[in-house]
Fold this sequence. Notes:
CATH superfamily of the domain at 36-158: Acid Proteases
Oligomer: single chain
Radius of gyration: 20 Å
Mean pLDDT: 83
Largest sheet: 6 strands, mixed, barrel
Order of helices and strands: HEEEEEEEEEEHE
Distance between the termini: 66 Å
Strand content: over 45%
Helix content: 10-25%
CATH architecture of the domain at 36-158: Beta Barrel
Low-confidence stretches: 1-30
Shape: globular
Amino acid sequence: MKVLRMGLIGGLIGLAVALAPQLAGAADEDGRGEPINLGYIENVAVGNKALAMKGKLDTGADTSSVHAYNVKVYKRGENDNWVKFRLIGKDGRAIRYDQNVIRFVRIKTKTGGTIRRPVIHLPLCVGGRWGRAELNLADRGDFEYDILIGREFLANRVLVDSGRTFVAEEECERADEN
């Protein structure tokens, strides 16, 4: 039995070694490259104008969430949901958005109920790594951080060291001034 187990383990290790180049190549194909090591609290740039926010990198959350002000969902056409909202950076700079809603998500509340939130796509950057993220628009006024970055964005980009904060060496430059 022990020999069989050792043979199986050796075979799995061999398979992992053989597949490693293809798996590494797959991560590079989407432009992400090798993951970087960051702390669980980092500076985050949101949107094309790189609005600066202090964010929490949360491997326990599926998607990301941002504190949005004046959220107004409306229809464009018969079945097309859009949302107007404002984001305010840590320096007080505010940016207004008018975005297509990609879906709605139901979030469980502490009191046992649920709340429906719109989800949008916006560019995000942390540690010099830009990517498009799904963000649900939330009232995070009771939380310490205005933005929470979830696994959907972190996967294959960032390894989170839960014992460290603000370890990013690269800045996030503005992608577009318009």
